[in-house]
Amino acid sequence: MSSFNTILVANRGEIALRVMRTVRAMGLKSVAVYTDADAASPHADFADISIRIGEGPAADSYLATGKLLAAAREAGAGAVHPGYGFLSENAEFARACAAAGLVFIGPAPEAIDLMGNKAAAKRRMMAAGVPCIPGYEGADQAADVLAAEAARIGFPVMIKAAAGGGGKGMRLVRQAADFSAALDLARSEALAAFGCGDVILERALLQPRHVEVQVFGDAHGAVVHLGERDCSIQRRHQKVVEEAPSPAVDAALRARMGAAAVRAAQAVGYQGAGTVEFLLDRDGAFYFLEMNTRLQVEHPVTEMITGLDLVELQIRVARGDPLGLAQNDVRLEGHAIEARLYAEDAAQGFLPQAGRVDRWQPPGGDGVRADSGIVLGQQVPAFYDPLLAKLIAHGRTRADARQRLMAALHDCVLFGPVCNRDFLLQVLAHPQFVQGDITTAFIASHFPDGLAAPVPASIWALGAALMHRAEQQRCAAAAGGVATELLGWSNRGSLHSIVRLSCNGETQSLQVSEEPGRLRVAGPGWQHRVTGEGEALRVDGRRADLRSWRLEGEKLQVATAARIVTFTRQRASAGTASAGQAGQVVAPMHGVVRDICVAEGDRVAAGSRLAVMEAMKMQHEIRAAAPGAVAAVAVRAGAQVQAGQVLLEITPQEDDRT
């Protein structure tokens, strides 16, 4: 038995705050660590003790074992909870905690080592009778050997980082010609994320479901499973929407998958919270994918249907308490769905975003839970994962849970960094999701370009009306004594103004006319009439579902139930400079330049790889939009750059190499 009353949470954001809430509810004290970039983060404010550990980059802070252990000593902590990500699946960190006399709230280092290496884990699972996907897990990592093994397995194949997960170091290769470049990227990303460039290969199942089973083990030999979660809605191999139970799993299949997951945990003497991930084929066959030796991002859906606090169970098991839960005690009640709110632009290839939180209104209501890690005024940095919050809804049926989650997203408002709220709504409303007929190919098949719908004319009309009225109020204040209603009136009839707005790369000149009790807004081929005041605005008599709006300078942010958009007013004197002039290649987001793939004077074809950037732990290729010659290289590998910063200059040329 281990005794401790103070726990250091070696993490940040929403998971740090979520762990600390349970720590406080158990009558224990929490210690937060934070960086300068996270100084205004709510986890630092919530904790009983908060300790600064660096400026911003994760390598010098949340991944710096020495700083974390020093913070634990300073605070008098007796245990460390790693959350997820960062060092949560790092066996050396777990060993360092033990050497420092700290209880690591997680499995034994040996289990982390084994299950963290995909090759070794797969071999152990096959020995334990857990079904596995055919592939290559060998120690020989020579590029020619891997290429030959890929050919033996047959394309398409999946390259995966052997030492980690979360979609990092993973590439789908459909044909042999693409294998070498994909291998280089996967290795580079794996080395940056996990410190190891080794990979494994697996036969790619192109349209499976991703179904995982939550397991728990204690120091007394008990292991149980808490049902499954369906995590098939993914982009770039990272989960977006999760639910429990899976709509594709019946009681008999649940029993088989649960038994396999328990065997997997028993095979490594597992203690604490773990997740055994499977790929489920349409024929009902399932295959071991990996085991995450930590708490999962999506653990709240399991909590919602079981009524259990998984963090509390983790802490009790880490103290040496018996699990106190037999398999027959586990009851699954209702259905729960979670949506991850990311700081990313779904209309621009899901590029990660950064910036100040100008407004944050999380939803509430019966059966709705919001786990967030942001507050008003906070800067969302480019150093870390783009996850901002998780919205979870529970209902008696899957349909109930889906409707509650959609209502929660309608009420959710985030101004500042572009987020994926509108995309989540489109996913939840898609007929195939409604039917539960989903696979890991869902987003790529139905939303290949991300956010599908353009901003509707009715929202352009709202933006113009709000901007027009704000201008009226400004003029009224400056005029001194002139009634607001007279500012739009003339004895020749109603006056009109031209409001020129830009949104998502599109600019429209909108005519706003004052009419009795309303505004008429006319755009290219359309017109709408706007009535009402404040958030009770109506467009053509229909409620606009305006949740919030914010005007700062020339920037207007508008949130309706369906869309969050940012309009920029273009004054007559203002130019329309784009982020990059013709021939310039600019950074699409804040991040670090990992590689410059060309040199001055090189000829490039359309689609040629020019550079590789890393932002929020993912690597992104930057490719040439048209053929040309490299006129200048403006940055070096390793440089930290801002969105819109010029990386290279390309002199356009005809491609005569056809």
TrEMBL record:
Q: Which cofactor does it need?
A: biotin
Q: Which InterPro entries is this protein grouped with?
A: ATP-grasp, BC-like_N, Biotin_carboxylase_complex, Biotin_carboxylation_dom, Biotin_COase_C, Biotin_lipoyl, CPAse_ATP-bd, PreATP-grasp_dom_sf
The UniProt record lists the ATP-grasp domain at 122-319
Tell me which EC number(s) this protein carries: 6.4.1.2
Please list the residue ranges annotated as the Biotin carboxylation domain: 3-448
Where is each Lipoyl-binding domain found? 576-651
Origin: domain of life: Bacteria
Q: Name one Pfam family in it.
A: CPSase_L_D2
Q: Which class of enzymes does this protein belong to?
A: ligase
Which is an annotated GO molecular function term of this record? Answer: acetyl-CoA carboxylase activity
- Output the SUPFAM superfamilies linked to this UniProt entry: Glutathione synthetase ATP-binding domain-like, PreATP-grasp domain, Rudiment single hybrid motif, Single hybrid motif
Q: Which UniProt keywords apply?
A: ATP-binding, Biotin, Ligase, Nucleotide-binding
Instruction: List, alphabetically, the PANTHER family matched.
Output: CARBOXYLASE:PYRUVATE/ACETYL-COA/PROPIONYL-COA CARBOXYLASE (PTHR18866), METHYLCROTONOYL-COA CARBOXYLASE SUBUNIT ALPHA, MITOCHONDRIAL-RELATED (PTHR18866:SF33)
Listed name of the protein: Acetyl-CoA carboxylase biotin carboxylase subunit
Organism name: Leisingera aquaemixtae
